[in-house]
Amino acid sequence: MAGLSTIERFLERVFERPAARLFRSRIQPLQLQRRIERTMETERLSGADRTLVPNAFTVRLNPDDLEPLRGIAASLVAELADAALAFARRHAYTVLDRPRVDLVADPGVQPGEIRVTAGWIDRSGRRDAEALAASDGEGVHGATAELRAGGHGGEHTMVFRPPAPPVPRAVLREVAPGGDERRVTIEAGGVTIGRATDNDLVVGDSRASRHHARLQVRQGRLVLTDLRSTNGTRVNGVAIAEIVLGEGDRIQVGDTTFVVESIGAG
Q1: pLDDT in tens, 28-69
Q2: Is 65:43 a contact under the CB 8 Å cutoff?
Q3: SS3 for 145-179, per residue?
Q4: Is 5 buried (19+), middle (13-18) or exposed (0-12) by CB count in 10 A?
Q5: What is the 3-state secondary structure (H, E, C) of 71-140?
Q6: Residue whose C-alpha is closest to residue 50's, from 180, 241, 259, 265
Q7: For residue 125, which phi and psi values (nearest 5 degrees)?
Q8: For residue 241, pLDDT beyond 80
Q9: How many CA atoms lie within 13 A of 195 on its CB side?
Q10: pTM for the complete prediction?
Q11: 22, exposed or middle or buried, with CB in 10 Å at 0-12, 13-18, 19+?
């Protein structure tokens, strides 16, 4: 695989710091990522038209193993959620909502041991059987994370949650088939993309459908939806029906590429 994984890049940044010599945990972040991926594979549900994987992961560590990680914990849980999202995208799996990771101190876990349990949670907050029963079959891909790291005697003493902008305003760089580029700003409310002149964002691309895809704000997220286009819509090389976008994502509409350069509050 070309390049380093998300967690590997994160580890590079951690160990470049002067304080890295103090990092002495028996548990390494890359081990946590691999266990989450393994759990995702083990718990996947395959149907006729999709493979649904868990998106809520609780990682339990012995308190002595968690303690050395506390200094990077807020970043670590976000990186683990991003890595879970990337893994789902690479395998064209469906998730009910953006992946979530809880990192929990559990005295019942042996030193050096990693316990990962998985479940499902949808955008309405419904969990497991209720969430699966309410699933519409499409799902979204995205990422969020939270940390619940208890002390030596408890679990719910602290929660770190990276805030999400309430109303995204995105800047996309469009690269046309001929190589011409332009920047497009997506305001709240959303746009449609396609060859037809009644689209908000018209592309001169013979491989794009007349009404190819739609970008819209939904519950504070920027969501891309394929409008049953002939040649499909791809994000980072993976065909999608609907997906939550993040900075750096590459959208393929026919032979036209859109790169998400920034997402911020409108």
Answers
A1: 888 899 999 999 988 888 766 778 889 899 999 998 888 888
A2: no
A3: CCEECCCCCCCCCCEECCCCCCCEEEEEEEECCCC
A4: middle
A5: HHHHHHHHHHHHHHHHHHHHCCCECCCCCEEEEEECCCCCCCCEEEEEECECCCCCEHHHHHHHCCCCCC
A6: 241
A7: 90, 0
A8: yes
A9: 12
A10: 0.48
A11: exposed
- How far is 219 from 217, CA to CA, in rounded Å? 7
How many CA atoms lie within 13 Å of 55's alpha carbon, on the beta-carbon side? 31
Q: Would the pLDDT of 15 be above 70? A: no
- In this predicted structure, the answer to whether residue 166 has a pLDDT above a threshold of 60 is no
Which pLDDT belongs to residue 188?
66
Q: Which of 244, 254, 260 has its CA nearest to residue 85?
A: 244
Q: Which residues face 216 on adjacent strands?
A: 223
- The pLDDT value recorded for residue 140 is 40
